[in-house]
Amino acid sequence: MNEAQRLVDLIPRLRRYARALVGDRATADDLVQDTLERAWAKLHLYRRGTDLRAWLFTVMHNVHVNRVRATRLTDALDDEMPELAQRPPQGDALLVRDLDRGIARLPAEQRAVLLLVTLEEMSYDEVARTLGIPIGTVMSRLSRAREKLRAMMLGHGAPAKLKVVK
Amino acid sequence: MSEPVTEADLQAYADGNLPEERRAAVASWLAAHPEDAERIEAYRKLAEELRSTYDSVLVEPVPDRLRRAARPAQLRRAARVAVWVALGVALGGIASWQLHDSPPTPSVDSAGAMARRAAVAHATYAPEVRHPVEVGADQEDHLTKWLSKRLGTQLRPPKLEDVGYSLIGGRLLPGENGPVAHFMYQCNRGTRVTLYVRSDMQSQRSTAFRYSREGNVDVYYWVDSKLGYAVSSGDISKENLLNVANAAYQQLNPP
After folding, report:
1. Looking at the structure, do residues B118 and B235 belong to the same domain, yes or no?
2. Cβ contact, residue pair B46, A146, below 8 Å
């Protein structure tokens, strides 16, 4: 299958991830468009026969990080500084709004891990490769993202203390 | 007692990512640790809610600007093809018209239409991660009975293990004039092949094997009186697919 067609086939998945990552539709689609354009510019760096999806999500991750830096959003890349920017609600259901807000309040790098694992159903290995981080970091970010989200959904302010495990 | 249960094990448990024996060990550990069990169950539910919240984006129409952004190289290739076509026409004028003796006729026969529909069905369902099939191969009996009943004919999904593919399940699809059975197979590297079966081929003589390429999907198809079959793949070579299609054909149309 050629790359052009596979890029087209992957657009819905890129959009789904982008929507969850940045919240509103227009910004998410801007991110997808920048990702596709950069993917074409960098296609010579893609090794044929490897996972195009993982590669595209790597491209998207880099584009996103650059955009966030460029626009100087308060999208903190630091664990201890949750992003406070409010995103517009996605739907009518209370749950959807809460979940959407909850995700928006996760630190960016935890959000990325959680979404790749949950929405893209990537293995932890794939997430590590996609984001260029060690697998142990994937696991700790996933763990923290989930606990924060759970605490928020329960209406608690602070997450429960987690046991420190390797 | 096996290895101690780690937080990473618990996360993997919530994601369904543990190998079977480890899963069982973690499950029994959780049975003895109700607080953690509750926490992990909450994680699992959150994941489900996340998917159900955002999966709707998958079926939204893709904006044109994104389609365009995904296709620049193909446009360039189309332009190259146009140049060659123009050159071909010019040469055709000089060369003999024998080149045009048998112009390709657009295939409008219903077997050809079936091949196209099969290719679309393949392209739609084969990339699915979570819901590639409606009924899994673990309920093969039920699957076969159900689809046989809906198609009004006894179906038997072929066994393709000899050519490296195992049935993962199937689903019912709307066809041109009625229901269609769609079986999906997968090899151990995760590559998928689908078998499309319709039972309403009208006044079709039985045909031999035919091949068609629809977009990026290769399709081998044939008709056996009222039954139409199509075997599709987008990921393996034409030769490999022929091998699989042949195996299916041998079983579905025993000599």
Report:
1. yes
2. yes
B54 and B69 share one domain: no
User: Among residues A50, A54, A44, A53, which one has the least CA distance to residue A128?
Assistant: A54
Burial environment of residue B193 by CB neighbours within 10 A (0 to 12, 13 to 18, 19 or more): buried
| Chain B residues near residue A26 by CB distance under 8 angstroms | none
Q: Both B26 and B125 in a single domain?
A: no
Residue A118 predicted with pLDDT over 50: yes
Provide the residue ranges of all domains of chain A, joining segments of one domain with +.
3-154
Q: Which residues contact B191 (CB under 8 A, 6 or more apart)?
A: B233, B235, B236
User: Percent helix, strand, coil in chain B (nearest 5)?
Assistant: 50, 20, 30
B213 alpha carbon, distance to own chain's centre = 15
User: Into how many domains does chain B fold?
Assistant: 3
Chain B partners within 8 Å of A32 (Cβ): 66, 69
A82 has pLDDT over 50:
no
What residue of B is the nearest CA neighbor of A97? B53
Across the range A134-139, mean pLDDT stands at 95
Q: Taking CB atoms and an 8 Å cutoff, what residues of chain A touch B43? A: 146, 150
3-state secondary structure of A23: coil
Q: Is B169 helix (H, G, I), strand (E, B) or coil?
A: strand
A15 and B60 in contact by Cβ < 8 A?
yes
Residue A52 has phi, psi (to 5 degrees) of: -65, -35
Whether residues B43 and A5 touch (CB distance < 8 A) is answered with no
pLDDT confidence tier of residue B72, bands split at 50, 70 and 90: low
Same domain, B143 and B205: yes
Residue B105 lies in a domain: no
Give the chain B residue whose CA is nearest to the CA of A120: B129
| A16:B53 CB<8 A | no
Q: At residue B99, does pLDDT exceed 50?
A: no
- Under an 8 A CB cutoff, do A11 and B62 touch? yes
pLDDT tens sequence across B212-236: 888 888 999 988 888 899 999 988 8
DSSP string, B190-233: S-EEEEEEES---SPPP---EEEEETTEEEEEEEETTEEEEEEE
Six-digit token string for B86: 């123009």
* A chain contacts of residue B67, beta-carbon cutoff 8 Å: 8, 11
0.80 surpassed by pTM: no
Q: In the predicted model, what is the mean pLDDT of residues A47-69? A: 86
**Residue B69 structural domain:** 64-100
